[in-house]
Amino acid sequence: MKGTWDVVIVGGGLAGYVAANYLAKTGMSILIIEKDKKVGGRARTDKINQEFFNLGPHALYKKGNAVPILQELGIELYGKSPKLQGLLMNDKVEYTAPFNPLGVFTTGFLSWKERMEWLKVLVKLKSTDIEKLSEQTFQQWVQQITNSKNVQSLLLILGRLATYCHAPEKVSASVIVTHLKMVTQGVLYIDKGWQTIIDQLHNKAVISGVQIQTGVIVNEIKMAENNIILSLSTKEELICKYVLSTTGPQELMKMLGDNTTQTQMDFFAQMSPVKGAALDIALTQLPKPNRLFAMEITEPFYYSVHSNSAVLSDNKNTIVLHVFKYLHPDDNIDGKELKKELEQFLEKIQPGWQKHKISSRFMPTITVNQRLPQIGDEQKLQRSKSEVTGLYLAGDWVSSHSILSEGAVSSAKQAAEEIIEKEQR
Ligand SMILES: Cc1cc2nc3c(=O)[nH]c(=O)nc-3n(C[C@H](O)[C@H](O)[C@H](O)COP(=O)(O)OP(=O)(O)OC[C@H]3O[C@@H](n4cnc5c(N)ncnc54)[C@H](O)[C@@H]3O)c2cc1C
């Protein structure tokens, strides 16, 4: 690492790599610093034995903003879409999920009147003007769009599925409905996991001259008169014109120390992450092969066999599935209890699955998104982004309109474009 750079990007995840690829086209000198030994952040895939495990269930929206941005950068996306079908369950009963036309007309979950109402709500969803939802919580929107309790339940289930947010009374309707619209247009499960996206971005960045340093932590970002100084865990200091931070808000605050403002501190301090408990499993076979997707109706549980759509093992017969519990920000976390709950949920769907287990991995509280999107975040984000000259932000918490990979990828492109525009001025 030489001492002076045009742009230093903190974080080698999806946002860091997307930004690096856009910036690399300008000929500026660019360095990515990643604290982990491996790049990829939460889009990392771990190969365990012959299986490819994403960090919990990962699905890319087919009709979101991330896919066209990745394609613009020349990234190839191999994989397939899971069918919009499966089971809805509660303690005692299972129903066909009404997520496709056949499901709507055969499900026992809805009466005939409710089926018509559900179809009407799906049509309304398509034409909903997101701009008009900025002052509403998702729960308020759900209660306003339909009086039917069962149709409200379906919207809450789809809301969890689309965004991993399980706090309808807190989250902003505009972000959740934006993602609901996307999820109803299908998702992609990626062959060999999301690491393939990171690897392609990494290779393209390296070819374009981007330097990448792993295993190094940025401890401090200090503002000097005409440039920015970064202090690293290696005791080195770097000087640069622009810093693009893709870390979470808490890490950013730590790095900024006194260089942050009260507005930023207040906003970052009240921000809470979206968390979940993930159980990733490889099996030799499924006890009930036709059961590929299920959601609990009132409890926040998810199950999906990702290997049914994507290649996720070197052995074509192996099953890779994900079980997940969406956590509420106020939940008390008991790792042992969560693992038991997830295993019991899977036992209901695939009785005797333990006999077929090859490997599994349990993560009790993984951060899915760095910001639970709340009403009013939009203005606060705008203000926070422009507080410190030369510092740009990207990541899944930075975009005001979207979260998850959508937020990470679109905010990264935007931050890169802002730097390029500043440089050209
Ligand atoms: C269980 C789970 C399921 C998910 N499912 C989906 C899904 O279905 N669809 C979807 O679109 N998205 C999904 N996501 C979200 C998606 O993975 C993330 O939104 C995306 O990967 C975030 O990318 P990022 O670059 O913003 O952040 P990160 O991937 O977190 O990258 C930030 C990087 O910064 C590094 N870093 C932090 N501090 C420092 C420092 N001081 N110095 C140097 N480096 C530092 C970190 O190590 C990290 O690698 C899921 C996430 C999880 C965990």
Report what the structure shows.
The protein is an alpha/beta fold. It has three domains: 4-43 and 195-271 and 372-424, FAD/NAD(P)-binding domain (3-Layer(bba) Sandwich), CATH 3.50.50; 46-63 and 188-193 and 274-369; 97-185. The protein is built from 13 helices and 19 strands. The chain has helices spanning 14-24, 66-72, 101-106, 112-127, 138-145, 149-163, 173-183, 195-207, 249-256, 262-270, 335-349, 377-385, 404-424; strands spanning 4-10, 30-34, 45-48, 51-54, 60-61, 79-80, 87-89, 94-96, 187-190, 211-214, 218-223, 228-232, 237-245, 274-283, 293-296, 301-305, 319-326, 357-369, 391-393. A hairpin with a 4-residue loop joins strand 15 and strand 16 (301-305). The protein starts with a strand and ends with a helix. The relative contact order is 0.20.
Features:
single chain, 425 residues, 3 domains, seven-stranded mixed sheet, 13 helices, 35% helix, 24% strand, binds flavin-adenine dinucleotide
Task: Predict the CATH topology of the largest domain.
Answer: FAD/NAD(P)-binding domain
The CATH class of the largest domain is identified as Alpha Beta
Between the first and last Cα atoms, what is the distance in angstroms?
28 Å
Helicity level: 25-40%
Structural class: alpha/beta
Beta-strand percentage? 15-25%
The mean pLDDT is 96
Each distinct ligand: flavin-adenine dinucleotide
Q: What is the β-strand count?
A: 19
Which geometry do the CA atoms define? globular
Low-pLDDT segments: none
> So, the CATH homologous superfamily of the largest domain?
FAD/NAD(P)-binding domain
Number of domains: 3
Radius of gyration, in Å, reads 22 Å
